[in-house]
Amino acid sequence: MNAATFRDCKAWISEGLSLSTSSNEACKLYDAILSQYVTWRNDESVGGIEGCIAAVKAADPDFVMGHVISTGLELVGTGSSVLRDERLANAVKTTLELAKSQELTPRERNHVKAVELFSRGALHKACEVWEDILVDHPTDMLALKFAHDGFFYLGEQIQMRDSVARVLPHWKPHMPFYSYIKGLYSFGLLETKFYDEALKVAKEALALTPQDGWSVHSVAHVHEMKAEVDKGLKFMASTEKDWMVCDMLACHNYWHWALYHIEKGEYEAALKIFDEQVSQRGVKSGAMLDTVDACSLLYRLELEGVSTKDRYRELLQVTEQHTEDHTLLFNDLHFLMVSLGSKDTSITQRLLESLQELAKEPADNHQLHIAQRVGLPMCQALQEFDQGNYSQVVQLLKPIRYRFVEIGGSDAQRDIFNQLLIHAAMKSGDKHHQRFARGMLIERDAVRPNSPLTDRLIQRAHALHV
């Protein structure tokens, strides 16, 4: 990352994305933060994202877009909630007050509005505002990335794809982040099951920028969804040196690598990646993406019958402090896996009771709106499975299995809940549930042929129910 190439006031104006500040330094630091967000890496040569956020506020304390990007990134990180974090709530308030006190462009005003909506959990409305910005400013990368993340959290896969498709023709090869647009588009394509096209677009991006961790991640997903396990393993190993530099995404890419090993039944190799990469990186960063990956990996291994020893207890030290955040149901479900795995009933109760309480009066918060019909039954299913009440798990999950998507995340990430339902149905004493399990496995085999994991489950189902 070359600090000399960051855009000053004049450069932003020439791109039709003028920023309301007279400080060239503030404009360049805004660009530095945006660059690190897009490339998934803290660049120590410019002080990392945190260093740049402190510097942009020093360069111009009243620079509204400096506040928008710093507060927006914290909200999108989902690691803290305005309900429980007074500092974050004040940061949102400060951004709003600054916006009222000065002349801003309509684009900047919309950015402020979107951040405020996102802070209240009104994710749909926030995404609509970012999309409105993109109608008039299709090269506003901040609006595009925030919308992309918002749609991801909402499980709105088609919108995530089309949001990028609409702006693609406006991006030209000479523009900053041009290759990264392809990675964003590739991810939307694969989440809507256009796997071949997704692979093609991701490879185009990597030909331009081999260090694009998000495009690597897109390729990893394609191999995962098509059960091309050996291709996936080979690809991750051959590109590791390129994507390791993306410190904010490397943990997730290692998670994908471990998933291939689980698919093949190579549990020791998966545990090795957990211990050496996923766990260490997650504890160090405290980032939600890294944390939920660690939770998910342990739970998948446990479903496969692998002993995870004390690893849940170690992970609980990270997840416990987020027990009552309730920023995303997706996060809550993963934290619950850890409190159950650690046999910590008090933390489990705190998580469930605080979520039930908030869900009574959801206001604008989308996650709390869907908690009653999707989130809480999924939480309860995890608890019932832990207690060996398998038929109860099936009764909870079977009616909502096609609504799992509403909790957000990717198809690969949410697959853990499909696996949970299959395992519960197989273990249930109810013959109807056992037949349902076999049906789900046939369906799984049809969309992901040659999956070793599916083959193992089919064999297990036959052995259990002869």
TrEMBL record:
Keywords annotated in UniProt: Repeat, TPR repeat
UniProt xrefs under InterPro entries: TPR-like_helical_dom_sf (IPR011990), TTC38 (IPR033891)
Keyword Transport included in the entry's annotation: no
Annotated signal sequence range: none
Family under the similarity heading: Belongs to the TTC38 family.
Entry protein name: Tetratricopeptide repeat protein 38
